[in-house]
Specification:
The complex is a heterodimer of chains A (about 400) and B (about 140). With about 400 residues, chain A is α/β, with parallel strands linked by helices. Chain A contains 13 helices and 15 strands. In chain A, strands 2-8-7-6-5-3-4 form a seven-stranded mixed sheet, with helices on both faces. In chain B, strand 2 (about 40-45) and strand 3 (about 55-60) form a beta hairpin. The interface of A and B includes residues 310, 312, 385 and 402 of A.
């Protein structure tokens, strides 16, 4: 077993070796510009790009012509949100999203607010779900876009995309979903789920970094976007810039592997996730599982360890590459806005760890990770005044703390 | 974040973790910080009749630097006088542990914990003396 054990697949994944093999010739042998129409170099590159487009389209049930290459999900989200806002401004100036979305959705929305648009920020419940009745009630005749992620990157909760899509369709507003974390993990089908725009990133599904795409519906309705970058008019004029052929080929291959292997791969990873979670929760009954226990990503577990501080825990399990819910490298010690959005107390938000498993995770690694976490939580609890107080029967919520 | 070797050493082998009897009149207890801020320190001292700190214990909920700051504080407290302990400054802790700027608050908390423990001990001493005088 190689240390540290990588359990941060939601941050990024290694490239699948098959993806790398597929990409290699495109660096220096078949290196053409896909936009070159006058020679074989260009034709070969274009053919490879179109094959990749079909591979990615298949993963989400789209038509290849509906896939628009970008540099990643952040660009795809920006293009979807700002592109729709600019194009449909005459129709309305209202957009809807939720407080637990990724920053790449929240920040474009905030920017739009400075440009005269109105944004409704839906709250979520303890498991990270929006209230669909509240969503429906928020849609007005001025609403041009609803953006809600398919799966949350911190807690893994799945939004009921098909239900949300149906509401948006019925109310006549466009629906964008950031499916960065969901792709290759859960089935996606833009037709069945009534999705109009969908963002994907290659490096979350064993492809390379720096490439992603935006699905843009072609009919029922035909979605139009105002380009956010001007230039050579690539990608149907919606995203100029020479195509990253190598990256695109890699993303295509990554999508192909996900489409073909999801049915066998995901049950294996889910079983490992359950094993990890069960071991930890059995040994540490106070630990709290965050997110929806059922409707969530199969490879992700977010657990809070009360009375133990997250950064010290991460430091203690340095043989594990995991994420902390608390970004306390900053002086402000701000806990995760997603966990706070669920209504978790700051102390629980401060002490959470996100484990995300993947294609190359083994049972041995999971057992090692569980043992290390259990050991370290117990050690830190012995050092924790909060744990001691709780053992003495003190109600921590009634203590008068010296907030500094 | 890269931690200094001294922080790592205190984090992995914390000195003087534990608790003293907080009802003992010779024990002073300081609890500072708040769970929602991400750190709580409990620091205790036991003082003999001559004003010398004969024992010190801590428990800390916080990051590695907070644990190291309080662990170091107990090392410095043991064997020193209450008056000298009151002079310990957070900057000395920062220097000894090579804390980066974002972790300076951990040393401030440790200084506050020392002062709170001394104050608690003094208060108890005052109460004991008052009781003795009355009796």
């Amino acid at each position: 077993m190689k240390l540290p054990v990588y359990l941060d697949y939601s941050a990024t994944t290694p490239c699948d070796p098959r993806v790398v093999q597929r990409m290699l010739p495109f660096f220096s042998d078949t290196f053409g510009n896909a936009a070159s129409r006058s020679h074989a170099f260009g034709w070969t590159a274009e053919a490879a790009v179109e094959e990749a487009r079909a591979q990615v389209a298949r993963l989400i049930g789209a038509h290849p012509k509906e896939i628009l290459w970008t540099s990643g999900s952040t660009e795809a989200n920006n293009l979807a949100i700002k592109g729709v806002a600019a194009m449909y401004r005459q129709k309305g100036n209202h957009l809807i999203t939720a407080i637990t979305e990724h920053k790449a959705v929240l920040d474009p929305m905030k920017w739009l607010e400075t440009q005269g648009f109105e944004v409704t920020w839906l709250p979520v419940d303890r498991q990270g779900h929006v209230d669909l009745a509240q969503l429906e009630a928020a849609i007005t005749d001025k609403t041009i876009l609803v953006s809600l992620m398919a799966a949350n990157n911190e807690i893994g909760t799945l939004h009921p995309i098909a239900d949300i899509g149906a509401i948006c369709k019925r109310k006549g507003t466009l629906f964008h979903t950031d499916a960065t974390q969901a792709a290759g993990k859960i089935p996606l089908d833009v037709e069945a789920q009534h999705v109009d725009l969908l963002s994907l990133s290659a490096h979350k599904m064993y492809g390379p970094k720096g490439v992603g795409c935006l699905y843009v519906r072609r009919k029922n309705p035909r979605v139009r976007l105002t380009a956010q970058m001007d230039g050579g008019g690539h990608e149907r004029g919606m995203r100029s810039g020479t195509l990253n052929v190598t990256g695109i080929v890699g993303m295509g291959e990554a999508a192909r592997i996900c489409s073909e292997e999801m049915a066998t791969e995901i049950p294996r990873i889910r079983a490992l996730r359950e094993r990890l979670e069960q071991r930890i929760l059995r040994a540490l009954p106070d630990a709290v599982r965050n997110g929806d226990p059922e409707a969530r990503l199969p490879h992700l577990a977010n657990v809070s360890f009360p009375y133990v501080e997250g950064e010290s825990l991460i430091m203690g399990v340095k043989e594990l590459a995991v994420s902390s819910g608390s970004a306390c490298t900053s002086a402000s010690l701000e806990p995760s806005y997603v966990l706070k959005g669920l209504g978790l107390g700051d102390e629980l938000a401060h002490s959470s760890i996100r484990f995300s498993l993947g294609r190359f995770t083994t049972e041995q690694e999971v057992d090692f990770a569980a043992d290390r976490v259990i050991h370290e939580v117990k050690r830190l609890r012995e050092m924790s005044p909060l744990w001691e107080m709780v053992q003495e029967g003190v109600d921590l919520s009634k203590v008068k703390w010296t907030v500094h | 974040m890269a931690y200094s070797d001294k922080v790592l050493d205190h984090y992995q082998n914390p000195r003087n973790v534990g608790s003293l009897d907080k009802d003992d009149p010779n024990v002073g207890t300081g609890v500072v910080g708040a769970p929602e801020c991400g750190d709580v320190m409990k620091l205790q001292i036991k003082v003999d009749d001559s004003g010398k700190i004969v024992d010190a214990k801590f428990k800390t909920y916080g990051c590695g630097s907070a644990i190291a700051s309080s662990s170091l504080a107990t090392e410095w407290l043991k064997g020193t006088s209450v008056d000298a302990a009151a002079q310990i400054k957070n900057t000395q802790i920062v220097e000894e542990l090579s804390l980066p700027p974002v972790k300076i608050h951990c040393s401030v908390l440790a200084e506050d914990a020392i002062k709170a423990a001394i104050d608690d001990w003094k208060k108890k001493q005052g109460a004991t003396k008052a009781a003795e005088a009355k009796g």
